[in-house]
Specification:
It is built from 8 helices and 23 strands. With 438 residues, the chain is an alpha+beta fold. The strands form 5 sheets. An 11-stranded mixed β-sheet has the order 14-15-16-17-18-19-20-9-10-11-23. Helix 2 runs parallel beside helix 7. The N terminus is likely disordered.
């Protein structure tokens, strides 16, 4: 019997360690130049488009095949760091020390000194918002979501009742899930949960309304987007400098609500020069007394097409005597996209308020096909471009067979989603667990 037990546990040990013998990749830590860890920073492999996020301790781990890789470390507010690494038969330790981003005020030039450069940046970005939202005809992606949090307070008369239900104050809630999300224009979303591990009660907080939508939409979970056509009625914008990253000029814009309250955002949005797309954002809003923080980092998935790769969401506050703090990290990968063939031409946007209008600029003509005009729209004023995109959207909707369907959303859970092994989770988890989470 003793011999049998020894053989059994030896077999278990071998099964546990054998996969690690043949595994290889990169692992390490992302820190500030002062040695402080950067939680939820991004590691992005430029050769393959794969990426992971660091955990709360700034640690990451990514399995890779043998080869040479360009590894890009990014964290909002810090200058990105690019290193090249050779992966052979073993794990390679690759640490990053990042310095705070230096912003150059002279990078963006306008033709008037009386206006903040942020105004023309945002006018151009707003005029391109619907274009960027319609750029991708359909896509699918894998999303890893990790949530942690706890209920920190409750009304005194409810505490005993909660204890009866097994809910304890300050007891951690944790969850991990992997889903495949598929989107098809105009607004069809399918989500299939492939695997999920949960313990505790999440108090009904969820980042799903933010992951499944886009800041190119006029509203996100009923809050006004800074890229909404009516954004100037709700927000003040201030230019706070620019920087160059991988040959791309990016401007930092401060977003401030004109009137404090719920359903508006406060924070920063980073806009890519010339194509006027989102590079990243760091915004907060509030809903029913809860403060909600949203951070997104975008990566190029095709020429002039950027989509979110890392999301961080925080929920905290008090509502009817209940209080809680929750944090979610979402990491996306395996983007498969189909571009809209009608929106291939990249139009140069002219802000008629501050830019000189060239003689060869195209004008919107409501009597001509929007599709033909888009194919030849090399330069347009922001006003005419918005009219053209609005007309294109109307014509596209008329051609759809499912024109009556405004929104389709489906959600399903794989029958094996809650039965996946720990080895499975170790093989697919893109964010290294901390000791406390383990």
């Amino acid at each position: 019997m003793l011999r049998f037990k020894l053989l059994f546990w030896l077999g278990v040990f071998c099964l546990a360690v054998v996969p690690g013998i043949f595994a290889q990749g990169i692992r390490g830590k992302i820190m500030t130049d002062k040695g402080e860890p950067l939680p939820f920073a991004s590691i992005y492999i430029r050769n393959t488009g794969e990426g992971v996020a660091t955990n709360q301790n700034g640690e990451y781990e990514l399995k890779l095949k043998k080869g040479v890789y360009d590894v890009l470390a990014q964290y909002m507010g810090f200058a990105s760091d690019l290193q090249t690494v050779i992966v052979l038969d073993e794990w390679v330790t690759l640490d990053f020390k990042m310095s705070e981003q230096v912003y150059l005020l002279q990078e963006v030039t306008v033709n008037t000194k009386s206006e903040d450069p942020a105004l023309t940046i945002m006018r151009k970005a707003i005029s391109k918002a619907k274009y960027h939202r319609m750029q991708v005809q359909e896509y699918s992606m894998m999303v890893y979501l990790k949530g942690t949090g706890s209920l920190t307070d409750a009304p005194f008369f409810m505490k005993k009742e909660l204890e009866k239900e097994g809910v304890k104050l300050n007891e951690a809630y944790t969850t991990e899930s992997v889903s495949r999300i598929t989107f098809k224009q105009p607004n069809a979303v399918e989500e299939e949960v492939i695997s999920i591990r949960t313990n505790g009660d999440n108090n009904q907080t969820s980042p799903a309304p933010y992951i499944a939508t886009s800041f190119y939409n006029p509203k996100i979970n009923n809050a006004i987007s800074p890229l909404s056509p009516s954004a100037f009625a709700y927000y003040k914008f201030r230019y706070e400098g620019s920087f160059v990253e991988n040959g791309v000029l990016i401007s930092r814009v401060r977003v401030q609500p004109r009137s404090p309250g719920e359903l508006v955002f406060d924070g920063y949005i980073y806009i890519i020069e010339d194509i006027w797309a989102i590079h990243s954002l760091d915004l907060t809003t509030s809903l029913m007394g809860f403060k909600i923080g949203v951070r997104q980092l975008y990566q190029p998935v095709a020429e002039n097409v950027w989509m979110p790769s890392n999301h961080t969401y925080t929920f905290g506050g008090k509502f009817f005597g209940f209080a809680g703090e929750y944090k979610y990290l979402a990491s996306t990968r395996d983007y498969k996209i189909t571009l809209n063939p009608d929106l291939i031409v990249e139009t140069k946007i002219i802000d008629e308020k501050v830019d000189a209008i060239p003689a060869d600029v195209s004008s919107f003509n409501k009597n001509l096909s929007s599709l033909k005009q888009l194919a030849n729209a090399d330069k347009m004023t922001k006003k005419d471009f918005r009219k053209l995109i609005n007309e294109y959207e109307k014509e596209a909707m008329k051609e759809r067979e499912d024109v009556e369907v405004i929104s389709e959303r489906s959600y399903k859970v794989d029958s094996l989603a809650r039965k996946r092994s720990l080895q499975y989770w170790d093989s697919i988890r893109p964010v290294k667990l901390t000791d406390a989470e383990i």
